[in-house]
Design goal:
It is built from eleven helices and two strands. With about 325 residues, it is mostly helical.
Length: about 325
């Protein structure tokens, strides 16, 4: 009995390739459906934490004030030890410490003790990771087939990346957080305008913005709530506005802060100034969206060439190539 051979294209079984591609497409569709159904709620984790805290208070198993104070003391002692070590090595400068603290605030990390950890990481990571790669490259035969220039490049790149790793991590968090805050600025300004026209004070307006927009924009809600608290207890309200600008790495926020400081200093209407800023921010957001849409054809060129056109050629020319191959193999009837 003669066995029927499946058609092949370039030595590949067409039926087998089609089955594998169908399985991959089905898996991608299932992943897309799961991603669409499981929408991330930014406030779900916070609500869960509050509920757990409430249950702990009801059960009476919360940690005592003494334990919390001891935990803070231990954390402070660890930071002091690292600070003493860096000071003895003469690698701790006040300017670097202030810059690290500023970046931590912009990344959403409130604890200032981590600034010493960032500087300590710049010192320790190149020694640890660089020493490991140095031993692997020159102490073993793992890269014996590499040229001396390539091995030196690997070691140098490891040292540079290890030194820059803490800054890269912080900059990534700052970028993501700034992008999340930028999305909610026009809505926050509109709500501030409404609160100002309703006769609320600035700190009450910030409280209202934090309450209303905290679920949609958690990062912006936290910053507005903290600014409202600082406006309530700081003697200099200008300092509270400047702290708000320093905690967010956005030029738009600096413009808002400058406007609020000037309105409080000269007595100009706050609502009209904020309304102008809100319209300007909405226009900027629309221009950024139009810019991304204009870049889309150029970005889609590479996926089109790599993934869509080859599949299209296989679908169109595949049957014809199989027929031509069978005609050459079997010969004329």
């Amino acid at each position: 009995m003669e066995t029927v051979q499946n058609p092949t294209l370039l030595g590949v079984d067409v039926y087998l390739a089609a089955t594998i591609l169908s399985g991959i497409a089905t898996f991608a569709v299932l992943v897309a459906i799961y991603a669409a159904l499981s929408v991330h709620d930014p406030m779900a984790r916070r609500v869960k934490a509050l509920n757990e805290r409430r249950e702990q208070l009801k059960a009476g198993i919360t940690a005592s004030t003494g334990k919390r104070r001891a935990k803070l003391v231990r954390r402070s002692e660890g930071a002091d030890r690292i600070r003493t070590l860096l000071a003895s090595l003469q690698v701790l400068q006040d300017s670097q410490l202030k810059e690290a603290q500023r970046k931590l605030l912009q990344a959403g990390i409130r604890s200032k003790e981590w600034a010493v950890g960032v500087i300590f990481g710049r010192l320790v990571l190149p020694i640890v990771l660089g020493g490991i790669i140095l031993f692997i490259v020159y102490g073993t035969n793992s890269f014996a087939d590499w040229t001396p220039l390539k091995r030196y490049g690997l070691v140098a790149a490891t040292f540079i990346f290890s030194y820059k790793a803490p800054d890269i991590f912080l900059q990534n968090k700052i970028t993501k957080r700034s992008a999340a805050i930028r999305k909610g600025l026009p809505d926050a300004l509109d709500l501030l305008v409404i609160c100002a026209e309703a006769g609320l004070t600035v700190d009450a307006a910030f409280h209202r913005v934090a309450k209303e927009l905290g679920k949609a924009y958690p990062e912006l809600g936290d910053e507005c709530a903290l600014t409202a608290i600082e406006l309530g207890f700081l003697t200099d309200r200008r300092q509270a506005f400047e702290n708000f600008a320093n905690r967010i790495a956005l030029d738009e926020v600096k413009g808002i802060v400058t406007t609020m400081i000037q309105t409080e200093k000269y007595g100009t209407p706050l609502a009209s100034a904020l309304r102008v800023l809100s319209a300007e921010f909405r226009n900027q957001r629309m221009m950024r969206a139009e810019e991304k849409a204009a870049r889309l054809p150029a970005i889609m060129t590479v996926p089109l060439i790599l993934f869509i056109l080859p599949v299209l050629f296989v679908v169109i020319l595949g049957p014809a190539a199989c027929s031509i191959k069978d005609a050459f193999i079997n010969g004329p009837v």
